[in-house]
Amino acid sequence: MVFIKKKNGISFRLATETDVEKMAIFEKDVWGETGADEEKISSRIKTFPGGNIIALYQGDVVGYISFEYVDNVAKMSNFSWSEITDNGKISQSHSPQGKYIYGVTISVHRSMNGKNLSTLLMLHAWGHLILNNKTGVFLGSRIPDFKNYKKWHPNIDVNDYIKLRRNGKLRGYELRMYGEEGLLPVKVLSDYFPDEASLNYGVLLYLENPFYRWPFRRILTWLFMKAPLFRKFLDWLFVSIVPYFTRNKNTTKTRKGMIKSISESYSVIKNKYSFWEKKTIQSWLLMLPGSGCEHHKKTGGCTMCGFHQATDKYTHIRLFFKAMFLLAQRVVRNVRPQEIFVFNGGSFFNDKEIPVNFQKYLYRHVASNNYLQRLVVESRCEYITADKISLATKILGNKKLMVGIGLESQDDHIRNKIVCKSLTKARFEEKVNLLKEYGADVLAYVFLKPIGLTDEEAFEEAIKTIKYALSVGVKEIALSCAFVQEGTKMSQAYHEGRFTPPSLWTVLKVIAEIRANNWPVHIGGFSDEPKPIAIPCNCPDCSPQIYEAIEQLREKGILGSIPTCNCLTTNKSLI
Ligand code: SF4
Ligand SMILES: [Zn+2]
User: Which residues form the N-acetyltransferase domain (predicted)?
Assistant: First the structure.
């Protein structure tokens, strides 16, 4: 059965024999020659009709998930995709009494990029898992960034690679994506699937059924499918907490790991390229959930900003800033970061958001730790006052203060009417001068692609804004490439088909300009809290490698290799 019939204009239903021809064309479009042909699809539907779900948009097949029942495949020493799926036909591999689900394929058309379709398809498998009381779900993932990573780190072993983390999340693009759905690596499978970029490796992933053997499975399935909040609670409970106590037999973790995981949700060490030291430094990112942005409370906030949802989520932490800070410090026990970068989803200098005692506590912490050279905080201009800055710089002593200000655009109409920033250029310049007077530096946020601009216009505007910011004394710039967070005006425009994030080709075009001019511009990450529903992307063929290349730029100041791809021809203006 299907659990969600329609969402975002996409309908879902079980595949039937009459869909086979269309599905084979779709598979070929997505996977090329390795896509399932009519014989395989037909055999899957005949063998296990309930395990084949398609997504349709305006009559076309745009997504397909197929699964089968198996026994505990984690006990097998190694197997290929071909072996575990009977070469994609499942007639010999599907075991009707099997206690586990195995994912045969999940395919999403590139036109659906950023529409969360893979999550929606996977939700059907999760629903099936709960309703049919299966023990868990297995899936074999590619690791398409492994070959590229190995080029730079020739001694890396694949077993170590799959454990690598960046910002607390798995480093591999697909592993990270599945990890966000709760599927965790069990082991490496060699010669799993012919895939050059993965060096033919696959990774067996596993998600346990949180309701195995529970009663009222129909109600639980309904809740799971229909109530996102219930799912979020389960994510937290079963993905972050329970595995550490239960020592899940398929994924091994420890209680110590749980504390680490909680610490990492507030505190992360990130490698970052320093324009001034011309090398990679370690930056300690501290997510301090304050009481939320006043601008958002008073006006509804900036059109792209969903941070209020993150600050609302952590209400219980607000009262315990110092306790949280001590927990967060676990992450830096064995490292010596050069800077602390505080994100609080609002204004650090607003006492209503971050208590003044904690502001001072943090200044003292930076001042008294030799290895810390700089404190970076964010604030709206109205809270940047002479009193605040003189207090901060006095306690910090010879340590540098940098203040991030959301400028977004040099154009008054775009900044105040489209982004709804409520900020004049005169005020921005006044605060830049004030900060400089006290020896502090300014980091300006520049937004790439506000609502209503084409990619081409967004490119032009971002370049003009960077030039303007540098001309008025800004020291560094962070380019925020638009991503869509639910519950924002931007998400409304996105759902109505009026907005998409910039393509990665546009981001690369801005990067080319930045590099040609040697501007001190960081490229902001493509994710945040809450998790975006759409991010800058190209087609699935080139996106993973471009993400990796941009990440390399963020970390090392060197842009990784950019693939050539047919999808660039649809962005001719960018060539
Ligand atoms: S972008 Fe900054 S100023 Fe705008 S609503 Fe979000 S936190 Fe507030
Ligand atoms: Zn492409």
Answer: 10-194
